């Protein structure tokens, strides 16, 4: 599926809802796991690309010793600004930067980390080559990718519910981009094409918990670029779409608290 520019439009409004709703819903468990895997490598320097609103950055800052430098970057200024405002437990260098052309010298970092963002890169192989360029010999690139949307229950229900409002042109951002690149063969091919010798894949399933169906409906409809697709189709349609998603989630999982499966692929390239 093609990836329109709306897929990478993380506006200030998206950043605010992303941090308040989507981060605790699906990102925090994986952030802690990624930080733990980075810590086990005992790096002296870490670069995080596509840091979003900083959930992994905060986990890294808590897990890594103060002697380890952390640089956190994202293409979207709104996301970096929000992450810096939230802050971390210790010093982190924040920077707006494009993974396609990183502003760092060759062999600068021991580890590069990226959580659930490689799906947004316009050319993943070229981006992985750039990551490899800034890694020191023997360094590692740790990243994660969501599995297919059918394996991620809240996202699947929301996509179907919102799509029912616009049957002639359903908004498919969630299926197309976040959940459209979890194929093991595709991941391995991209990583090896970028020059990495080793690519280790691990599937990790978890449970997404929400106090009520409103929370995941708001998270996906208002805290991701799905918001942009909805507003493109209907002025003022965000409220209708969120209500439809809430009703569908309640019909599937109950009034709340509710839980749904989330599933991802964890990748270690070196």
Description:
The chain is α/β, with parallel strands linked by helices and 270 residues long. It has helices spanning 12-40, 55-63, 77-86, 124-134, 153-165, 173-176, 184-193, 214-222, 226-233, 238-253, and strands at residues 45-48, 69-74, 93-96, 109-115, 135-146, 199-210, 258-269. Helix 4 links the parallel strand 4 and strand 5. The longest helix has 29 residues, at 12-40. The radius of gyration is 18 Å and the shape is globular. Residues 5-10 have low confidence and may be disordered.
Summarize the structure.
With 270 residues, the chain is of the alpha/beta class. 44% of the residues lie in helices and 21% in strands.
Model regions low in confidence, pLDDT < 50 over at least 5 residues? 5-10
Indicate the proportion of strand residues. Answer: 15-25%
Largest sheet properties: 7 strands, mixed
Number of strands: 7
Order of helices and strands: HEHEHEEHEHHHEHHHE
Class computed from helices, strands and strand pairing: alpha/beta
Oligomerization state:
single chain
Termini separation (Å)?
29 Å
The Cα radius of gyration reads 18 Å
Note the overall shape.
globular
The helicity comes to 40-55%
Number of helices: 10
**What's the pLDDT, averaged over the residues?**
93
Widest β-sheet, arrangement of strands:
3-2-1-4-5-7-6
SSE layout and pairing:
Elements: H1 12-40, E1 45-48, H2 55-63, E2 69-74, H3 77-86, E3 93-96, E4 109-115, H4 124-134, E5 135-146, H5 153-165, H6 173-176, H7 184-193, E6 199-210, H8 214-222, H9 226-233, H10 238-253, E7 258-269
Parallel strand pairs: 1-2, 1-4, 2-3, 4-5
Antiparallel strand pairs: 5-7, 6-7
Helix pairs in contact: 1-2, 1-8, 5-10, 8-10
């Amino acid at each position: 599926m093609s990836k329109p520019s709306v897929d990478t439009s993380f506006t200030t409004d998206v950043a605010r809802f992303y941090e308040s709703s989507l981060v605790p819903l699906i990102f925090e468990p994986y952030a802690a796991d990624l930080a733990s895997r980075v810590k086990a490598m005992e790096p002296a320097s870490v670069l995080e690309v596509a840091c979003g609103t900083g959930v992994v950055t905060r986990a890294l800052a808590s897990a890594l010793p103060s002697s380890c430098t952390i640089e956190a970057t994202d293409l979207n200024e709104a996301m970096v600004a929000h992450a810096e405002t939230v802050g971390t437990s210790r010093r982190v260098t924040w920077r707006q930067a494009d993974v396609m052309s990183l502003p760092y010298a060759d062999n600068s970092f021991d580890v590069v980390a990226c959580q659930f963002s490689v799906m947004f890169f316009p050319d993943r192989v070229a981006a992985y080559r750039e990551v490899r360029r800034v890694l020191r010999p023997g360094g590692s690139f740790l990243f994660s990718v969501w599995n297919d949307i059918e394996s991620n229950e809240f996202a699947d229900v929301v996509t179907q519910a919102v799509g029912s409002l616009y049957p002639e042109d359903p908004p498919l951002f969630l299926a197309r981009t976040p959940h459209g690149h979890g194929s093991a063969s595709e991941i391995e091919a991209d990583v090896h094409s970028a020059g990495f010798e080793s690519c280790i894949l691990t599937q990790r399933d978890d449970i997404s918990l929400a106090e009520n169906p409103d929370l995941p409906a708001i998270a996906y409809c208002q805290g991701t670029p799905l918001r942009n697709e909805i507003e493109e189709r209907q002025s003022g349609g965000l409220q209708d779409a969120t209500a439809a998603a809430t009703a569908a989630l309640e019909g599937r999982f109950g009034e709340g608290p509710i839980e749904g499966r989330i599933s991802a692929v964890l990748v270690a390239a070196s």
